């Protein structure tokens, strides 16, 4: 569990370095192996300041309301609902980046106009805007149901959710989704005709990109650690 805490803290710091944080309003989590619990940031901490020791544990068998003094209620509800619905998911990133929110508001959704976007071809779910997620039985469960079997979802007029079997995989999807959204916003802002591959080529590219290597995201994650100052964890 010590290594998991360190990895999750580093995920927060990498997101801050990439400019993907939104003060204290978004959240990243990691499920503890074999347990009904997950790690998540406290509500009063910026991404850049998250440490292994500052991460809180949420026990999904306990009432969500018991955590609201220190944690973002929307984070507790959203992450709990997804973990309960998807045993294969062990890490969740929820972001409100400008490019991600912009694409979430577009009726066209994520367009297959860049290689970044082809990682998600026919693999992006959408969830209609329902204000803040403050109800477990309606809003949170609706969100988890809308994710379905995909690893990525656009929360319309709100932001993005990316998930993975590991922190490394979830970070991989987060990086490529953010770049895909940024390219889409730049392309559409040019107000000029654009091209996109055929549906057959999009599907081939998606299969190639996701099958390119084992342990998806691990190589990029390990390389990205050089961007961070060392941080030890002794507890």
* Number of helices in the DSSP assignment: 8
Spans of at least 5 consecutive residues with low confidence: none
Question: What is the third-level CATH name, the topology?
Answer: L-fuculose-1-phosphate Aldolase
What is the radius of gyration?
17 Å
The chain-level structural class is alpha+beta
Order of helices and strands: HEEEHEHHEHEEHHH
Which strand-content bin applies to the residues? 5-15%
- List the domain count as a whole number: 1
Shape: globular
- Strand order across the largest sheet: 3-2-1-4-7-6-5
| The CATH C-level class name | Alpha Beta
Mean pLDDT, as a whole number? 94
Oligomer: single chain
Largest sheet: 7 strands, mixed
Overall helicity: 40-55%
Q: How many β-strand stretches? A: 7
Report the end-to-end length measured between terminal Cα atoms. Answer: 10 Å
Shape-level CATH architecture: 3-Layer(aba) Sandwich
Name of the CATH homologous superfamily: Class II aldolase/adducin N-terminal domain
Fold and architecture overview:
This protein is an alpha+beta fold and 235 residues long. It has one domain: L-fuculose-1-phosphate Aldolase (3-Layer(aba) Sandwich). The protein contains eight helices and seven strands. Strands 3-2-1-4-7-6-5 form a seven-stranded mixed sheet, sandwiched between helices. Strand 5, helix 5 (136-147) and strand 6 (152-155) form a beta-alpha-beta unit. Helix 2 (73-85) crosses helix 5 and helix 3 crosses helix 6 (167-189). The protein is globular and about 50 Å long.
């Amino acid at each position: 569990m010590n290594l998991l805490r360190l990895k999750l803290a580093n995920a927060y710091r990498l997101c801050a370095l990439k400019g993907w944080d939104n003060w204290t309003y978004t959240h990243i989590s990691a499920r503890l192996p074999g347990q009904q619990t997950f790690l998540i940031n406290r509500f009063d901490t910026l991404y850049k300041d998250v440490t292994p020791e500052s991460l809180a544990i949420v026990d999904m068998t306990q009432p969500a309301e018991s955590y609201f003094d220190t944690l973002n209620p929307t984070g507790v509800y959203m992450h709990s609902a997804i973990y309960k619905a998807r045993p294969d998911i062990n890490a969740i990133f929820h972001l409100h980046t400008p490019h991600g929110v912009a694409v979430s508001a577009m009726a066209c959704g994520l367009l297959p106009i860049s290689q970044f976007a082809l990682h998600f071809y026919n693999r992006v779910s959408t969830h209609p805007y329902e204000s803040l997620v403050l109800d477990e039985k309606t809003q949170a469960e609706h969100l988890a149901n809308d994710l379905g079997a995909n690893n990525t979802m656009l929360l319309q007029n709100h932001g993005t959710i990316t998930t993975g079997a590991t922190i490394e995989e979830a970070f991989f999807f987060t990086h490529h989704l953010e770049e895909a959204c940024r390219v889409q916003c730049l392309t559409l802002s040019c107000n000029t005709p654009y091209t996109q591959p055929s549906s057959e080529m999009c599907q081939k590219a998606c299969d190639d990109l996701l099958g390119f290597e084992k342990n998806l995201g691990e190589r990029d994650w390990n390389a990205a650690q050089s961007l961070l100052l060392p941080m030890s964890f002794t507890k």
